[in-house]
Specification:
This protein has 117 residues and is mainly beta. It has no helices and eleven strands.
């Protein structure tokens, strides 16, 4: 049974930091690209970061480049999103996604991030 469980969300002040985690099981984690998306109220889901299976290259949306860092630990089957310099516009539900070419597309249930003073 495939599971992706996000954690680490919460309320943070503008300029603050959070680290999201996505613990996975039920599939070959190291073979999958791992991606983070977010969805703000009234908006479509937005891709924000991905890390490929090998060699672990990373890519970011312009909206988070320079502030967010995606990383993965294949030994723990976990992907992370370090978020720094948070802004009110970063308020959203954050989702992790596992994907690989040719098949496999799995989603977590999401974790809420609220940036507010």
């Amino acid at each position: 049974q495939v599971q992706l469980v996000e954690s680490g969300g919460g309320l943070v002040q503008p300029g603050g930091s959070l680290r999201l985690s996505c613990a996975t099981s039920g599939f070959t984690f190291s073979s999958y690209w791992m991606r983070w998306y977010r969805q703000a109220p009234g908006k479509e889901r937005e891709w924000i970061a991905r890390i490929v299976s090998s060699p672990g290259s990373t890519y970011y949306a312009d909206s988070v480049k320079g502030r967010f860092t995606i990383s993965r630990d294949n030994g723990k089957n976990t992907v992370y999103l370090q978020m720094n310099s948070l802004k009110a516009d970063d308020t959203a539900v954050y989702y992790c996604n596992a994907w690989r070419p040719g098949g496999g597309d799995y989603w977590g249930q999401g974790t809420q991030v609220t940036v507010s003073s």
